[in-house]
Each structure stands twice: as structure tokens, then as C-alpha cells.
Amino acid sequence: MSRTPRAARRLAVAAAVLSVAGVTACGSDGTDSDVAAGDPTDAYRVIARLHESSTDDLQPRNLAQALPNRQVMVRTDGGGDLVNTFSDLVVTGPITSVTPDEGIFYPNATAKADQEAGAKAVGFDNPDAQERVALVTMQVDWSAGDKVGPTLQFRIGVPLDIDANEFLAGVRGIDDAVVLLKQFGDGRYEGDYYPILDFAGLGSVGDDGGLAFEGLGEDESTFLAEVSTLDELKVEASKPDTKVRF
Q1: C-alpha dihedral, 65 to 71 to 75 to 79, nearest 10°
Q2: Taking the model in full, what pTM does it have?
Q3: What is the number of domains present in the chain?
């Protein structure tokens, strides 16, 4: 969520432009096979870097504010209120597969363009790809917000300057995930979900029910100061819709 609507919003260095750009499919040389589970620390380290470099000036101060039942109100320059939510859905459950999806190439990209013309979908591993996207599938054990079925899929961007296999294996290695999700509003991925907070909205549930959002880095302790367990999350998410002024 940003203070003013924009034609496109990049999610870190990954695929937010895909939510609005008219991307033309032109085949894929990537793989659709599930990656093997690795060390989640490898994923959280990358996500923490993305979150730390975020330029978004409006983010939830804590987990409660990030939930779908918190309506965020922001005063616009015109004197009215912009009302939205940071997330549309919060869900917990094991991640069951992570698959590379596609890359995006912008043949007519310019430095100032927020929506580049002529964007084309290419293979995930194509050296011409300027952005990469993977698909994460998880079992739904509990959810609040949007109604979902027994399984759920969301998209996550994969930076170009990292080992993609190591990163995706780290995501696959999250045994019991908790994730705050927002839907793309239009475009190629309209209706698909992505983790909020530059993907740092993807966390884990411990054996003791404790929540962790390691991708938040130094912000994690503040984010979990009031709601830090799965039981507390369920209580907070079941409350009536509440408006929060920013």
C-alpha cells in the first residue's frame, strides 16, 4: 500500500511490474519441477535485504495492523481519505512446492519508465530476463480474510543477483509457514497473491506456536511485540474490522 495510487509498483527487484504491464508470452525455457527443500535462512537473508532497502513509506508497525481486518486510512493531498488494507489474507500451513515460473524481459525499458512497453515473458533462467518470478504452493491449515480452499498458491520475486536455486530451496524448507498476502489488482497476475512487506510477510510457525518473521531483520521484534504466537494471531484476526489512521 502506498500513499498515492501508481500505474505500477515494483516489489523489490522482482515482478510487481507484471501486475500492470501488458506482458506478452513468448515461451519459457525454465522448469516447472518442485525444488528440493533447503535452509530457510538462505531465503530469509535475501528477503531481509529486500525489506531493508524498501522505499515504501507506509508499512504496518506491527502484525495486528498488517491483518486483513485492519482498514488503513491515509489522508490524501485533496483532503479525503484513502482506505485500504495492508493484506487481503493471512494463512498458515506447510509449503508443499516451490517452482520457478518465468522471467520478464523489457526490450523497450527506460530508466524513468514505471511500466515498460513491450514486456515479454521468457524462461526463468533466460539470461535476458530482467525480473524472475516463482510460484509457491502451500497447504492451508488456517486462514483469515479472503476465503480460500485447502491449498493456496502465491508468487514471489527472485532477485537477479542471487543464487536462485538456493533462495527457492530456502523458501521450500519452511516447514510451517505463516504468510500475509495481498492480491495483484490487475494485469497479467490479476487476482494472484504475493507476500507483503517486500516478501518479509512470509514467516514461520514454531513447534511451540511462536511466530517468526526473520525477513524483517531488526524490525521483527517490534512487529511481534503485541502478537507473537499463533493463538494470539487467531484471536486478533477474528476481531471485527477496525480502522487505523496513518
Answers
A1: -170
A2: 0.84
A3: 1
